[in-house]
């Protein structure tokens, strides 16, 4: 096992210990001040394909809107929640955007054809939303839009004379994302990756944007490694929903009940779920359980997870509210091959659940000490299984 070498200056300052536990009140207040400093004042158009508050992107969007509100900005939001009721385009727009919109519509049509790959479907969905939002940008001074779905909006906003163009990078530089997804697929060829269809679009967005929001040091480092100027990168830290608190632990004190290992999030290859399942099955303690809270989006992952559950009754999977599972958990694992931040492990830490996370995730920066978690080498099956066993035996994570 190896620990991350890129850590915050102070564990207590980063995690807020002594102020309500990990990610406590003082830590949240500092994060919100930093969020406010990262967003502009005035009239701001904000767009995101996800519904407000739903999933990682939707919650990220909510934090941006809250930061704008705290600063007194006038925000107009185009997102998955408002798309059905959005006004019709008023005409005009940036020169040539009718050609771009036509390409986006064609991409969306191709993506809906029978047999289209998940990657092509993702590209089509994002391109269609981008064209939709670009034709509906309001009169504003600033644009904040998410990566992979912002190219036409950035062009339209620049043509309309917006004062600033801000891109939100929900993950690390997409070249790194693509490399890490390929690592995951090489080991578990269960599903395709959406990244190959989006690298070119993201590179163009990075070039057009005047500033790029990054949610972690891991994301920042990935952009610097690809040659993006440091002055273009702006920190916008993310925070777990306040409802995630230690509360009353449903699982009882250590030594009672089952030893629940919990994963929360999409059941996908690049999230390290097959790796976690294989590592867990190597540890044969009868009172250990692996609880997977989330759903799959491909047949390959569905079959893999269902077979694992059938072969090992200690493994259970299903969607639902993760909070009860976290209140019962003795350990949370986030073995992702790449994750710019990771709301789910942050929520576990806020609940007082220790973590095992990979070194290719921004969550590594929130672990303030050995009682809170360990950072493991990405994709290392042996290290993960040994850590699960050591945690069960009380040899690590505070015993």
User: Count the helices. How many?
Assistant: 14
Which structural class matches the secondary elements? alpha/beta
Shape: globular
How far apart are the termini? Answer: 17 Å
As residue ranges, the low-confidence spans are 1-20, 91-96
Please give the largest β-sheet: 6 strands, parallel
Helix content: 40-55%
* Secondary-structure element order, N to C: HHEHEHHEHEHHEHEEHEHEHEHEEH
Question: Care to count the β-strands?
Answer: 12
Q: Please, what is the average pLDDT?
A: 88
Radius of gyration: 21 Å
Strand residue content: 5-15%
Strand order of the largest sheet: 2-1-3-4-5-6
Structure write-up:
- The protein has 399 residues and is an alpha/beta fold.
- The chain is 40% helix and 14% strand.
- The chain has 14 helices and twelve strands.
- It has helices spanning 11-15, 25-38, 55-70, 97-111, 118-134, 151-159, 174-187, 199-208, 217-225, 273-282, 299-311, 322-328, 343-350, 381-393, and strands spanning 43-48, 74-79, 142-146, 164-168, 211-214, 233-235, 259-264, 288-293, 315-318, 331-334, 355-358, 373-376.
- The strands form two sheets. A six-stranded parallel sheet has the order 2-1-3-4-5-6, with helices on both faces. Strands 9-8-7-10-11-12 form a six-stranded parallel sheet, with helices on both faces.
- Helix 2 packs across helix 3 (55-70), helix 4 packs antiparallel against helix 5 and helix 10 packs across helix 14 (381-393).
- The longest helix has 17 residues, at 118-134.
- It is globular.
- The chain starts with 10 loop residues before the first helix and ends in a 6-residue tail after the last helix.
